[in-house]
Design goal:
The chain has about 450 residues and is α/β, with parallel strands linked by helices. Helix 4 runs parallel beside helix 5. The structure holds NADP nicotinamide-adenine-dinucleotide phosphate and L-homoserine. The site of NADP nicotinamide-adenine-dinucleotide phosphate has 28 residues, from helix 1. NADP nicotinamide-adenine-dinucleotide phosphate binds next to helix 1.
Amino acid sequence: MSGELIRLGLGGLGTVGTGLAKILAANADWIERRLGRRVVIKTALVRDPDKVRDMPQNPHSPNPVHLTTNIQDLLGDPELDIVVELMGGKDTAYELISSSLRAGRHVVTANKALLAERGNELFALAAEHGVGLGYEASIAGGIPIVQTLKEGLAGNRISVLTGILNGTANFILSEMTTRGLDFQTALRQAQVKGYAEADPTLDIEGMDAAHKLILLIRLAHGQDYPLTSLPVTGITHVEPQDIAFAEEFGYRIKLIAQVRETDGLLDAGVFTALVRREAILGKVDGPFNAVLLDGDAVGPIMLYGQGAGDLPTGSAVLADIMGLVRNGRAPDNTGFQNVPLPRARILAPEQFRSRHYFRFSVHDRPGVLASIAGVLGQRNISIAQVVQKGSPEGRSVPVVFVTHKALARDVQAAIREIDQQSFIAAPTVHHRILSSPA
Ligand code: NAP
Ligand code: HSE
């Protein structure tokens, strides 16, 4: 990179792209003071160049942003210093990133879906060409977790990492809990506020959090955990009555992403969990994210901030851009020397041990509680608490069991067996219960 101006080529000028443009405009003098250079957007690749966009012009630059629908306007422009991929998806985004890296150009992206699936290949490509591939914005929005793991905590072995990593899901659960909104209304609001993915099923079915967890496992453990091996549950099965029961027991329901290392094996997953209301993660509401880490030297650390939205995510994109401008040496993308990273050594998901919440929908007749307790007992699942609510004559009633720690394998087998009983009116709803202090 040479010259006074740093010229960016943007793939995408939507929520995050316009967020970046706004920060570049608002903080232009500040950025110049830190870098001794001005950063401007030269060209932006979009689908619809006629769309009305809420974005400022480049400050201190004679030229407005050139909007194009032709990817060659980015790939073929030797003047661009950094290509910033903020379009999402896996096809054009892959073409833009891989071709830019091959051409020896630095890339910054917020595309966790692509990095979770093809990150190893793209990091190898970046290493081969000696260029940077920044992705701070792809995990937990504005929270600087990539930098923290690569640099601030580089000397630590991380035994457990627990996060709320999806702003949309957390916003929906918070709105359902605190304002009694229904799921669809809360989801629509998350979309309007720019938190949700273009395909919001990624948010509500847990895949977006899974993508981020895969990236965090690489950063924290230097291992490649295949996305297809990760157990993932979303929030679509969370019902208002579960939120109410959780409240009654002193918990909030959260979508949790977690990885733990025990005896050299990783156990990881994305799952709904009851989290104590007064615990750190129990208080993370709305579009906020949090990551709790335990490092062997540093001890516990928590990072908390906005996990989605234009400015928080633009802030993380800009941090990568400024890091690349500043950095004189070969970029350190994964945080590890050996690229591609080795495949993760994985603890089979059925070996997870956790406390559990079950809501059985039952036809209220004599012996039902004893039957359920019997199956749980045979599967080594010890009961801590039971609540049964009444219901009008003839309707099914919810019966909630909270258990002590049990093996996932035993829990799955117990649910299968109980759901076959004639007194069961609807499939059993099940959430984990997160242990303190998270
Ligand atoms: P968005 O609002 O939907 O914007 C996408 C932009 O890319 C739009 O400008 C769109 O053009 C352009 N685009 C999409 N596909 C294209 C194609 N094939 N060819 C040319 N242009 C194309 O998305 P976003 O919310 O900014 O998210 C962008 C990326 O950031 C995604 O990878 C997302 O996962 C990630 N991310 C988002 C957030 C967030 O809070 N939103 C946070 C972290 C990471 P038009 O404007 O013409 O439609
Ligand atoms: N859709 C994502 C979320 C955007 O809600 O967390 C931030 O990655």
